[in-house]
Amino acid sequence: MNRNDIQYESRSTVFLTMRIAVLALCLVFSFSIYAQKEKPLNYRRFDERTLHFGFMLGFNKSNFTAFPIIDAYEQYGLKSLVAKSQPGGQVGIVMSLKLGTPVVRLRFLPTLSFQERVLQYTFANSDPTKKDIFNEERINSTNLDFPLMFQFRTTRLNNFATYLLCGGQYTIDLQSQEKATQNFIDPFIKIKKFDLSGQIGGGVEFFAPYFKFGIELKYAHSFYNSFIQDLTPVSKPIDRLYNQVWWVSFIFEG
Predict the structure, then answer these.
(1) Largest alpha-carbon pair distance within the chain?
(2) Which residues of 128-161 are buried (b: 16+ CB within 10 A; e: fewer)?
(3) How confident is the model at residue 15 (pLDDT cuts 50, 70, 90)?
(4) Looking at CB atoms within 10 Å, which of 14, 58, 115, 185 has the fewest?
């Protein structure tokens, strides 16, 4: 089999993910075009305050952008390497700073998140009369995330507004086995403890009498390779792994 025939689904998911992100943001901001009758404004003094605090609850779907080595089939008989996303959750504290204008804010959101990713391998069997060999590796993470984001919000339409987000995130994986002794009888995938990623997203906000409620969608992708090559059977065919996460958050600010 020629190496060009090997199907690596994780590569194509990057382009699909970006298309979904653009579509989702367009849908979010389309709400602002609908005309509404003028209503009494809730929480009028929200935009007058410089600093706001709140909390966040949400769920996520994490995955890898996976790249096998170029000659993975020739060396190891790897026919496919597929990264599968898995659900997780997060909780965090919100700190929002007004930057001279109500529609531009700097948001810091320390978060504790729980994530899981799955790598599925298919190896060619040396006996052509038998089925291919299938293997699955699960990678779990408990992360401390420190995203710093710029928030660009529309002006309020009665008690409703929309916004865009962009920024970066520093992550510490508390469950990382970066320095753990490898078990070659039952090997596992090692990923780095620290990571840096970029984020884009958007959301909608609803102003209640005494607080603001927001629904937010974000996409994050790491800048650096998180994979640690330690020459085990499950790691040898892999060249690079990049973290990627979809975040859905429910935010309450006072």
Answers:
(1) 75
(2) eeeeeeeeeeebebebebebebebebbebbebbb
(3) very low
(4) 185
Structure tokens at 218: 């974000």
174 Cβ contact partners less than 8 Å away, ≥ 6 residues apart: 141, 142, 143, 144
91 pLDDT band, cuts 50/70/90, is: very high
Task: Pick the range with the lowest mean pLDDT from 6-15, 91-100, 140-149, 206-215.
Answer: 6-15
7 pLDDT above the threshold of 90: no
Collapsing DSSP states into helix, strand and coil, what is residue 175? coil
The token duo for 200 is 């884009």
* Residue 183 contacts residue 203 (beta carbons within 8 Å): no
Q: Can you tell me which residue has the tokens 């059977």?
A: 233
CA distances (Å), origin 66, targets 17, 142, 171, 182, 188: 14, 20, 19, 21, 16
User: What span, in angstroms and rounded, lies between the C-alpha atoms of 188 and 196?
Assistant: 23
pLDDT at 40: 77
Residues 3-178+186-253, CATH architecture: Beta Barrel (2.40)
Q: What is the DSSP string of 65-94?
A: EEEE-TTHHHHH-EEEEEEEEEEEEEEEEE
pTM over 0.85: no
